[in-house]
């Protein structure tokens, strides 16, 4: 049995094993952050039928099935998350191995294709940058999208390699079906047909017209799946136009793009040196390109080199272009509400690792013995497993996670609010009060005075705005203080201030009514007293 055959047989088992080791301490991580709104407080996941075909419906269906089997037992959710991640890792192994043995690269790489693909897939599976897509439950959106994208590409490769016409058609049909299903995972899937077409041009057809001339059926089918995504998104766009949801974070596309130059370089640094991982960056949008010109020059050079490479149908150019394409929907000109989240690097990380592993091998082969090269690869994977275990430990509780985020991003008022709430729930009332006061102290004095007067526009407000942080701090600080008769009056004052910036908020109004009753206001006078206090113009 050849070494290549042994690798091919052992690779799936080794990949599953290292993934289980890396995430062994993640199965009891609680729901946190967006998990609460997406899962815990979302009644729609408590029923499976009828299946609703809305944006990201496939991932929502997986959560509904999770709930049907496990309720809110987090172990089941983490098990499914890890299963999807392992599935994606196995597909990545298959894509890399089959690409390295294909005609354009086979002469150089075929003998080492299996061990190199195994190294790439193992490093990708256990890299700590992936924890936000695996350990953080609601980011199953990212891992399922990544799995569907890799499955589409893998099925396309198999359709090209299949020995019979029927097998080629079956694999092509599978690629189209998986891509269509992927349109119900996350909007980033939109780039998949283009990625497959570029793969065909660079590695299969070796010309720009060969994909259309030789595999018109497959590529036409893949691009037609984009119509599914368009139809699914129409409902979301309609909701946004009706004021129900927001599509963007309020920044201009030009400044958002400028911000992304630094964000993407930060992602690249974390790919190579995964220190300082953070669940919630609250990355501020820059005021102008003058703040980011070194990052802009570096990223522009990298992008131009990738584009030049793909125009020459070079493998490294293809990998670079895929890196930018997968990041493009969230990290270019569309100003989504948060400028930076690590889960956006789920698939782009595979591009970085592929270049590093193959480049490192080309640099060291002939200089080091094969056994030493294997030892280095094993050492890197073991180190990444250890770093992922350490990172998963940060997820052990909401309190631990928000302490971690605030220590790394002390100016993140959203995280400081969440830390204060976690402290209050843990019974650390004095620490919680200090955090709430710290949040309010970071909001400019003139804005606090404006908010205290209720001088705000009606309607929804951005969740990254000072007004939102002010509202959350006062509402939750009031909840903390209203529990104690000695501080109930202060709690009522905080409720009033919260309602001045978010009038008629039903939850906070309910808290205020209860606090007024507890303070001795007769039931018949509660509504009038509540309105009197809210409408009273009082400086903070």
List how many beta strands DSSP finds: 0
Secondary structure tally, helices: 26
Q: Give helix % range.
A: 55-70%
Q: H/E order of the elements?
A: HHHHHHHHHHHHHHHHHHHHHHHHHH
Content-based structural category: mainly alpha
Gyration radius over CA: 26 Å
Q: How many angstroms separate the termini?
A: 79 Å
> Main sheet?
none
3D architecture notes:
With 540 residues, the protein is mainly α. Among the domains are: 248-364, no CATH class; 443-535, no CATH class. 69% of the residues lie in helices and 0% in strands. It has 26 helices and no strands. It has helices at residues 3-22, 34-40, 57-70, 74-101, 103-109, 113-126, 131-134, 140-161, 165-182, 192-204, 210-214, 216-224, 226-241, 253-272, 293-311, 315-327, 348-364, 370-394, 398-408, 413-425, 429-441, 445-452, 466-482, 488-501, 506-518, 526-535. The longest helix has 28 residues, at 74-101. It is elongated, with a radius of gyration of 26 Å. Mean pLDDT is 92; it is low at 239-248.
């Amino acid at each position: 049995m050849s070494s290549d055959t042994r690798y091919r047989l052992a690779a799936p088992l080794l990949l599953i094993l290292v993934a289980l080791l890396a995430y062994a301490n993640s199965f009891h991580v609680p729901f946190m952050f967006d998990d609460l709104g997406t899962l815990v407080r979302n009644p729609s996941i408590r029923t499976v039928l009828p299946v609703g075909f809305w944006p990201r419906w496939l991932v929502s269906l997986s959560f509904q099935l999770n709930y049907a089997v496990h309720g809110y037992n987090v172990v089941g959710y983490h098990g499914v998350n890890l299963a999807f991640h392992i599935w994606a890792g196995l597909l990545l192994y298959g894509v890399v191995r089959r690409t390295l043995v294909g005609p354009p690269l086979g002469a150089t790489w075929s003998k080492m294709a299996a061990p190199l693909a195994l190294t790439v897939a193992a490093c990708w599976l256990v890299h700590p940058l992936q924890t936000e897509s695996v350990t953080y439950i609601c980011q199953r959106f990212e891992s399922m999208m990544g799995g569907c994208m890799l499955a589409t590409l893998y099925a396309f490769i198999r359709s090209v390699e299949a020995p019979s016409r029927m097998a080629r058609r079956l694999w092509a049909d599978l690629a189209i079906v998986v891509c269509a299903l992927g349109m119900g995972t996350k909007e980033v899937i939109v780039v998949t047909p283009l990625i497959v077409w570029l793969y065909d041009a660079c590695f299969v057809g070796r010309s720009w017209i060969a994909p259309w001339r030789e595999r018109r059926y497959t590529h036409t089918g893949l691009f037609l799946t984009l119509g599914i995504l368009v139809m699914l998104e129409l409902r979301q766009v309609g909701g946004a136009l009706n004021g129900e949801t927001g599509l963007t974070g309020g920044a201009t596309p030009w400044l958002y793009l400028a911000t992304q130059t630094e964000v993407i370089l930060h992602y690249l640094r974390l790919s190579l040196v995964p220190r300082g991982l953070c669940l919630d960056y609250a990355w501020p949008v820059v005021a102008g390109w003058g703040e980011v010109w070194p990052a802009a020059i570096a990223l522009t050079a990298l992008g131009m080199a990738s584009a030049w490479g793909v125009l020459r149908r070079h493998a490294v150019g293809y990998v670079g272009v895929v890196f930018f394409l997968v990041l493009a929907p969230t990290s270019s000109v569309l100003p989504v509400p948060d400028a930076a989240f690590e889960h956006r690097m789920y698939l782009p990380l595979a591009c970085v690792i592929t270049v590093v592993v193959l480049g490192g091998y080309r640099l060291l082969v002939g200089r080091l013995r094969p056994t030493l090269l294997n030892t280095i690869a094993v050492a890197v994977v073991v180190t990444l497993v250890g770093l992922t275990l350490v990172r998963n430990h940060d997820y052990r509780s909401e309190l631990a996670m928000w302490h971690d985020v605030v220590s790394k991003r002390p100016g993140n008022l959203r995280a400081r609010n969440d830390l204060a709430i976690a402290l209050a729930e843990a019974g650390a009332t004095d620490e919680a009060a200090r955090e709430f006061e710290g949040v309010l102290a970071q909001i400019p004095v003139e804005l606090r005075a404006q908010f205290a007067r209720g001088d705000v526009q009606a309607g929804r407000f951005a969740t990254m705005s000072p007004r939102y942080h002010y509202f959350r701090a006062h509402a939750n600080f009031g909840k903390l203080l209203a529990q104690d008769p000695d501080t109930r009056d202060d709690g009522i004052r905080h409720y009033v201030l919260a309602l001045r910036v978010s009038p008629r908020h039903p939850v906070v109004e309910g808290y205020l009514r209860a606090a007024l009753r507890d303070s001795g206001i007769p039931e018949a006078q509660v509504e009038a007293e509540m309105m009197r206090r809210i409408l009273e113009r009082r400086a903070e």
